[in-house]
Structure formats: C-alpha cells, structure tokens
Design a protein that fits this description.
Strand order of the largest sheet: 1-10-9-8-7-3-4-2-11
Order of helices and strands: EHEHEEEEHEHEEEEHHHH
CATH superfamily of the largest domain: Cytidine Deaminase, domain 2
Number of domains: 2
Family: Belongs to the eIF-3 subunit F family.
Subcellular location: Cytoplasm
Protein name: Eukaryotic translation initiation factor 3 subunit F
GO molecular function, one term: metallopeptidase activity
Distance between the termini: 62 Å
Largest sheet: 9 strands, mixed
Structural class: alpha/beta
Radius of gyration: 26 Å
CATH architecture of the largest domain: 3-Layer(aba) Sandwich
Subunit structure: Component of the eukaryotic translation initiation factor 3 (eIF-3) complex.
Length: about 300
C-alpha cells in the first residue's frame, strides 16, 4: 500500500483570519459535544495500560444530527491496537465487532462516530487508524478525540479533529488533512453534582447521604431567599425588574404543585424513610459479605 502524506493544519480564529493577508481555507461547520463519562473512561483506560504502551486507543460512540454537522459523543470502549512499527498498525477488529454488538443491545441509537487516543499531538499512525474508522462511519467522516492524559493545565485536555483528503483528485497518493473542530463538554445536573464533589479538596472527606441531603436543602433555601429578596426589591421600587426573569419565575412558581404543608411533610418523610431503608440494606449486605469472606478464609 502506498504511503499517504500526513498534514495537520491549525486554522486561526475569525478575528485572526480577518487581519491576515493570506487567504485561509474555509473550515466546514462541524461541532462536537462530549460527555464527562467519556473523559473518565479514557483516563481510566490510560491508567490501566501496560507499562510498555505509550498511549491507548478506543472507539467513540454517540449520535449525529440529520445533516451530520453535529456529533454528540456519549460513550466509548477500549480497543486492542498494536503499533508494531513505523506505519504498521494492527487493530483487533473482532473485539471491536463484539463490543459494538453488545453496546447496540443496550443503546441501539448510539453508533460508532470515531475513535480516541491519548497524547498531546497527532502522529503519522493517526492517518491509518482514521482511515480504518472512516469505513466504520461511512458515509460520515469519523471524529478523532485526542486527550492529554498528563492533565497539563497549560494545555487543552480534549481536542477533536476531522479529516479531509488532499492532493490531486483520483490520485493514488492522496493525503489526509486533519482539521480541529470545536468541542464542548456537556453534562447533566446529576453529572454536575458528581463533578463538583470530585473537584473538592482531597482534605475534605466524602460526606454521607444525610449530610449531602442537608447541604442540598440548605442550597435550595439559599436560592429561595435570594429570589425572595429580588422580588421584594422590585415590588418596593428599589430595583428595576427584568421582564424575562419575571416570566421565568412565574413559570417556575406555576410548575410547583399546590400541596398542603402537612401533606408535603408526610410525603417527604416517606421518601426519607425509603432512603434510610436502602442505606440500611446496603450496610447489611456489606456486613454479610465481610462475614462470609472471613469465614471463607478460616475454612
């Protein structure tokens, strides 16, 4: 097989391009959104790699928009890839097929949208791997996610690229041009709570379920007091009201079901008792497993 050339271009931003005298090629409209689960999965794959392996590679799963210009990366799984030498890449296709088939049983809407690798820069082997995944994502172009596993704060942790062929049309020596595209991290409210907990100092121990519930209630009360102060200021003429914010507050108040205080207290206590029962059963199961393990060691 002929050796395709390798080219990586980083186009300047819109303001920089406007001040540049040289013409800049137009970058196609393409955006990516990335879930935090994918980042942690890639970093976990990197930490579990063999010592002789410099980087890890895997497949990306997600959904595309109808026109293919937007990609949401929701999941991933590792692949066995051997870079045995220069321009010699071996991919475990059987593992890829089996893992993708298993994932389709759980999330049928998610398809292969590209591949990931750890590192700080692209290398010539990326051309071969990208060419392989182009067959998996055809007719769409695959997305390459590059993650800096060193977590260097001076560099961007996650970068996404797409490629386009360059060279003489219908030529055997067509090359690949990698273009960096915008990438945003998208997370839900539950994921944001987990990330906030993980970003706390290591000196602060993990709080219990009851302490976490207490912190949540205190934050809700603080937000209610802040809204109440704002409404009182607007009603008293001390502050100019915002119509958009007023409509938002009205919609939020109307969405809250009307319930008597005693009924609310009863429902809250029932949910609290259910949660305490789950915690009790979990602790009981943990204790039984610990006893069974010790008995097994004694036998």
């Amino acid at each position: 097989m002929t050796n395709p050339s390798f080219l990586h271009l980083s186009f300047p931003s819109g303001s920089a391009a406007a001040t540049s005298a040289a013409p800049v090629p137009a970058v196609p409209s393409f955006t990516c959104t990335l879930g935090p689960v994918v980042l942690f999965s890639v970093l976990d794959h990197y930490l579990r790699r063999p010592e002789s392996q410099s980087r890890v590679i895997g497949a990306l799963l997600g959904v595309r928009s109808e026109d293919g210009s937007e990609v949401e990366i929701r999941n991933c799984f590792p692949l066995g890839v051997s870079e045995v030498g220069e321009q010699q890449v071996v991919i475990d296709t059987d593992h890829l097929t089996q893992m993708y088939a298993l994932h389709q049983r759980v999330q049928s809407r998610e398809t292969i949208v590209g591949w990931y690798a750890t590192g700080q820069t692209l290398n010539p082997d990326s051309v071969w791997i990208h060419e392989f995944f182009a067959n998996e994502t055809s007719p769409h172009t695959p997305v390459h996610l590059l993650i800096d596993a060193s977590l260097n704060p001076a560099q961007q942790i996650a970068s996404t690229f797409i490629s386009t062929p360059v060279g003489v049309p219908n030529s055997e020596n067509m090359g690949q041009m990698f273009i960096q595209v915008p990438c945003n991290v998208k997370y839900s409210a539950a994921e944001k709570s987990s990330l906030d907990l993980m970003t706390k100092s290591n000196d602060n121990p993990l709080v219990s379920d009851m302490d976490s519930l207490e912190d949540t209630v205190e934050k809700v009360l603080e937000m209610v007091e802040r809204v109440q102060t704002y409404v009182d200021s607007v009603a008293g003429g001390k502050e100019v009201g915002n119509k958009v914010l007023g409509r938002y507050l009205m919609d939020m108040v109307e969405s809250v079901p009307v319930i008597e205080p005693k009924e609310f207290e009863r429902v809250f206590n029932e949910h609290l008792q259910d949660m305490l029962m789950v915690v009790y059963l979990a602790n009981l199961t943990r204790t039984q497993l610990a006893i069974a393990e010790r008995l097994h060691k004694m036998v």
